[in-house]
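quick one: adenosine monophosphate bound model?
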Amino acid sequence: MKFNELNLNPDVIEAISHMGFEKATPVQEMAIPKILDGSDLIACAQTGTGKTAAFILPTLDQISREHQKETSVLVIVPTRELAVQIDQQIQGFAYFTPVSSLAVYGGGDGQDWVQQKKALSMGADIIVATPGKLISHLANGYVKFDKLKHLILDEADRMLDMGFNDDIMKIISYLPVKRQSLLFSATMPPEIRHLAKNILNNPFEINIGLSKPAEGVLQAAYLVYDTQKIKLVKSLINNKDSLKSILIFSSTRKKVFDISIALRNKEYEVAAISSDLEQDKREDVLRSFRSKNTKVLVATDVLSRGIDIKEIDLVINFDVPGDAEDYVHRVGRTARADATGMALTLINEDDMYKFHKIEQLIETEIRKLPLPNELGEGPNWDPKFRPQKRGGFQKRGNSKNSGRKPDFNKNKNKGRKPFNKGNKKKD
Ligand code: AMP
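yep, here:
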């Protein structure tokens, strides 16, 4: 569906075309008309589906038609990075409208606080906030939410995982009861249903399914310490004549190189491929793997998307991929075109939580196999364990503008202050 069939404001349509979007994605096609109708909404949609524009475009459309001097839209998100990213998208979509927006999150300096306070007391049209920081501002009494019309919770499952349930309910206690509420979540566990029941009113439901590994793939996993991984891989592939093509994925170029060295032996060919290799060399490596001269290929995710290599007997995830999409792409290299194949994932203690999230997203509990006896004991399955060093998801970027999108915004918005009402209307 084209965006101009969605009955959006011409100023918004113009910004969409500057962003280079031609057609609405499925979640946009389903959500935009319902949001324009004023319905509450609960949407199960992951990052990458175009969910952000699905809630920004119709709310922006509505508030730019009936522009008021107080905050109209509140978007609550789990992390500072997401707040900045969404605010940047809003600035792009709102470029030809008088709508102002601001991201409110912690970790900044005193100047950030002053700017956030100013925008909140003057009633910036759209506020994108992390729960903790917003509560600190709310406690000071200058936040103007009396005329708020739209509440959006993005990545709601992640917010609940991070323990924000009470904070969300507290923020909602400051909002008008009569409002439109939209809830977006990558998964729909019972806690999300419970939250939705508390805050949504007769919501319309959307479910954008994630692609899942093909039926023919046998998926299993091993719980291992890092020190056991190479030994385990060797025991899985040595002396297995039936395995002609084995693809091993790892997350970094350095690891790919180290694994390929560790697996080298006299019996069969092992190669490594990553973006470090020149294009010509990459093609040589792939050719040798396709023709089965190379039995084991160790690769970064570069290879997991797009490249069609048939008849891979075994995929090994040497570590757990970053997200469910990568998992599906990696695993999808085996069992292509109705063939059967096997995908094994090695999970260390730090990756258990991440793997559990992937299982939830693909709606499959993957069997954890016992380690071969000679390897000794591996770690116990503890999907709730989250490694400390990842800082509970609150990784801080250095620059407020890192990853700023879209490009056209960067050039045309030169000199624009982050909170500056009404100065960008096109003449
Ligand atoms: P999201 O799921 O909101 O994180 O969006 C994923 C990416 O898709 C972002 O980079 C958006 O800019 C982009 N995107 C969203 N909607 C569209 C569309 N209709 N056409 C092309 N790209 C889009």
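The chain has 15 helices and 14 strands.
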